[in-house]
Amino acid sequence: MVWMIIGMAIVTAVPRFLPAFIVDQIRFPKWMDRWLNAIPYAALGALIFPGILSVKPEAPQIGVIAALVAGALAWLNLNIILVVLGAIASVFIMTF
């Protein structure tokens, strides 16, 4: 049983750590580098957007307004903690 857990840990860890060691040694074409740099933003948007619409399912505009508040605070170059707290505060205010 212990060997099975160790084996699963190794099989899970290798694909996660291996790219960290070889990524500096590979040179991608410029177009691919731009595309790879855009992936984190696309993934973040895909994770955040459904949450924006489901903050309060019967009133999705609350999440949209909170996202706009967070966008405005981020545009002002505020600290990320303040941006998150601003979005949370706007949802809190609009739900009461």
UniProtKB/TrEMBL annotation:
Organism superkingdom: Bacteria
InterPro entries according to UniProt: Brnchd-chn_aa_trnsp_AzlD (IPR008407)
UniProt KW Membrane keyword: yes
Residue intervals passing through the bilayer: 6-23, 35-53, 65-93
Keywords: Membrane, Transmembrane, Transmembrane helix
One Pfam family named in its UniProt record: AzlD
Name the UniProt record assigns to this protein: Branched-chain amino acid transporter
Lineage, highest ranks first: Bacteria, Bacillati, Bacillota, Bacilli, Bacillales
